[in-house]
Design brief:
The protein is built from four helices and no strands. With 139 residues, the chain is an all-alpha fold. The longest helix is centred in the middle third of the chain and has 44 residues, at 56-99. The chain has one domain (3-124).
């Protein structure tokens, strides 16, 4: 693959990834409802806390359990949008890295005297070894 074609593909992948993260990120986080973020200040949690009755210790334990459950729910509710926003661009980047040929194996970007090696790295290595000066023997 030519170096210019490879750069165009990298640019297209980057634009696609950043466009995805911007659009989907806005849809996931831009209009998030209060129900997804259960903090001790949300109305749902306050209502649940008013239902706690009994001695001081019982009320405290009840409220602590409600707050901790809200934190766990909020964590799970926030992990899903992060995976939706960042998962596909990350997968696309990994796939691009492993499945698209790099221009470093192109005969136009390698050492002089390796013309005709094409995109085959083994052929490039054989031709490069032929063009190397002989090794000096120690002794």
């Amino acid at each position: 693959m030519k170096k210019s074609s490879h750069r165009i593909m990298i640019g297209a992948v980057l634009v696609l990834c950043f466009g995805w993260m911007a659009g989907v990120g806005w849809s996931q986080f831009g209009n998030m409802s209060e129900d997804r973020l259960l903090t001790h200040r949300s109305e749902t949690v306050k209502q649940q806390m008013t239902d706690c009755t009994g001695s001081f210790k019982e009320r405290y334990d009840c409220k602590e359990e409600i707050v901790l459950e809200g934190k766990h729910t909020t964590l799970l509710n926030m992990m899903v949008p992060f995976v939706i926003v960042f998962g596909p661009p990350l997968a696309l980047g990994i796939a691009f890295r492993f499945f698209v040929a790099s221009p470093r194996f192109s005969s136009r970007t390698l050492a002089p005297g390796t013309e005709g090696a094409g995109d085959d790295p083994d052929e490039w290595l054989r031709q490069t070894r032929k063009n190397l000066p002989p090794r000096r023997r120690r002794g």
